[in-house]
Amino acid sequence: MVAGGHESSTSAFGQRSVPPGCVAGLPPMGGMARSLCLARGAHGNHRWSLGGHAAVLARSLGTMLLFSSLGCGSPVTQQAADDADDEASLSSWTASMSTSNYLLDISVDISMATDSFLVTAQGDGGYPAMEALYDPRGQRVLDWEDWYDGTYSLTEAFFPYYDELVFNWPVRQEDAPLETGTWVVELAGTRNNGQQYTNMDMDITVQTKADPRISDGTVHVRIVYARGLDTDAAVSSAVEEAVANWRNIWDSHGLSLEVEYDSSDLSPDLDYPGYNSSAYLAETFRSDGEQVTIIIGESLGGDTSIFGMSGGIPGPLVATDRSCVAISWLAHAGQDAVFSIDELRVFGETLAHETGHYLGLFHPVETTWSQWDSLSDTVDCQNMNTCESQLGSNNMFPYPVCTWQSCQAQDQLSDDQVGVTMYYSGTL
Ligand SMILES: [Zn+2]
Fold first, then answer.
1. Is-contact 26 32, C-beta < 8 A?
2. pTM for the predicted model, two decimal places
């Protein structure tokens, strides 16, 4: 049931899969499978190990199952959002650095006005991963070993899945406010054989957000149609309705959407974000550096049973090969390829769900029922029935909960989930 495509296991993280009760022949919604955000497997050919941590890392591979979601983003820097009530702004700097031994310390100076920061490290032929975070007093507030193998998920930055690392801080309300002074983000470089990368070059971008009102915010979204879809009236009107449904979900939580639409020459059969997709890299260079790019295609990796996939948890704002959310319109339209009201609602929920991953949200529980987000107000349920009953209406639940007639609304976000989205540096 997992929409796979990659070697490796599928599973858990970031995956919104077919409703267990409806596998095979699922009736609702025209019987299509719903794997929102494919999972990224524990890459079969990689044995991640960082120097001295080799044993631990190797052991944990089996459990890390993927985190999935991949997404599509953008470069440049822009000033301020034009929200009437919230003049948040982003500033950024870039630098080329390289690891010494296999570690690289990035210093991030935080002033009184700064509420969050986002680090993107693009590795040259290697895979960067978060080693530790130090606060201005020199205290190690995050340690990769506490999260790599654990049952709670905080950020994908601990895992060398991609050739770029994305780390946003604070993640949760409880991690805030950001103390002024110099924070140090310590990264480790690995090669694809899992060995430490002694002199790995990385292009670093640090974006800091100043936000006078962190309790609400606007996400700037650029919706890009794959080739030919912008002129397909059935598709574009469905997308616009789905966006209206998405806006309703977010509005009630203080999250606003600013949307612009664009066309492109991307193939309607979308790549999975992050798999060396040079097309996504080129496309996301067109965005303004504070937008989340959402690509609307027909299928993902040739599969029309995957709803969508986010380029990361969280995703980057600078252009990379995974700086986007990839969405299949056809998966939502079902076998008849015509949208019902219910399908348009689920389409909107998917847009909110995948973009939620991009802003840093994990599923409150993964479908192993033994891995949870790190938020205290989403229950740690432990089996399918209990989880569907306690979390089935949550927008970040891993799959739509459906009967033969319809799928239940998934429009809820907890206060702690909303907090994560507000601290994402691209929420202005
Ligand atoms: Zn998901």
1. yes
2. 0.83
